[in-house]
Design brief:
With about 270 residues, this protein is an alpha/beta fold. It has a single domain, classed as Metallo-beta-lactamase, Chain A, CATH 3.60.15. Helix content is about 20%, strand content about 25%. It has a seven-stranded mixed sheet with strand order 6-5-4-3-2-1-14. A seven-stranded mixed sheet has the order 7-8-9-10-11-12-13. It starts with a strand and ends in an 18-residue tail after the last strand. The relative contact order is 0.15.
Length: about 270
């Protein structure tokens, strides 16, 4: 099992940070979680093409998490749709089929794959919902952001686990979902003292990680204000475990998560 942060930023344009996306490799499968602008280029930097993806999971439908779905599906048709040999499954919260149908109303056949190559799975907003996929088990739980917003947990057959919060405010569901996980990739949109509804700060993300007893916390989804403060120190107000501040193309092994510590220059510039 392997985790790569593809995008650690937001909707705000940045030369250093693409919008939200992570890549998880487990059991011979490749899962892309979120698909904000810049995702496909970051995938190529990991040696992964869009044709290698087996699953795309969307935490919610905001453009900084979903906007590259259209270019990805359009690019999948080149050349003549002949390079994708197995189905691509898109997993998202309730309402995604309607969301996709709206995109099709605009783009038509440009984003329609050959019959049998695109599968859509809508997960409900129950407290937790599981989907077994052989090479991994996917568990989702609703979080506090939008009506369709979900956090995801991926468990591998060898006992390792990664949790991705998506955008959320403080959430008991996220704490339950992340219980004893190897890694929690958690949004941290603004510094302490600048909190906005529907998002977390470093100390709140740290409190979630502390209560869930995760082996390693990775903070991500940084708005520009985060670049000017010591997020590491703020998170340490509530969390004493292994801590990393995300950057694009950060690569992490869940099996070693508990022993990892950030480099010194990771403290002020995530």
């Amino acid at each position: 099992m392997r985790l790569t942060i593809l995008g650690s930023g937001t909707c705000v344009p940045s030369l250093d940070r693409s919008s939200c996306a992570v890549l998880i490799r487990t059991g011979g499968r490749r899962l892309l979680i979120d698909c904000g602008p810049g995702t496909m280029r970051r995938l190529l930097r990991t040696g992964t093409t869009i044709f290698d993806l087996d699953y795309i999971l969307l935490s919610h439908f905001h453009p900084d998490h979903s906007a590259e779905i259209v270019p990805l599906l359009f690019a999948t048709k080149y050349p003549d749709g002949g390079r994708r040999r197995r189905p691509l499954t898109i997993v998202a919260g309730r309402g995604f089929q309607r969301f996709y149908d709206g995109l099709r109303a605009v783009y038509g056949s440009w984003i329609e794959l050959a019959p049998g190559l695109l599968k859509i799975v809508e997960l409900g907003t129950e407290r937790q919902e599981q989907m077994a996929a052989g090479a991994f088990t996917l568990t989702s739980a609703p979080v506090v952001h939008g009506p369709e917003s979900l956090a995801y947990r991926i468990d591998s057959p060898d006992g390792h686990s990664i949790v991705y919060s998506g955008d959320t405010d403080y959430s008991e569901n996220l704490i339950e979902l992340a219980r004893a996980a190897d890694i929690l990739v958690c949004e941290c949109a603004t510094p302490d003292g600048m909190k906005v509804d529907g998002h977390l700060t470093p100390s709140l993300a740290g409190e979630i990680a502390r209560r869930a007893k995760v082996a390693q916390l990775i903070l991500t989804h940084f708005y520009p204000a985060c670049e000017a403060v010591d997020l590491y120190a703020q998170c340490r107000r509530s969390y004493s475990g292994s801590l990393l501040l995300a950057r694009d193309l950060l690569d992490v092994d869940p099996a070693a998560a508990g022993g990892r510590q950030p480099a010194a220059d990771n403290r002020n510039r995530p």
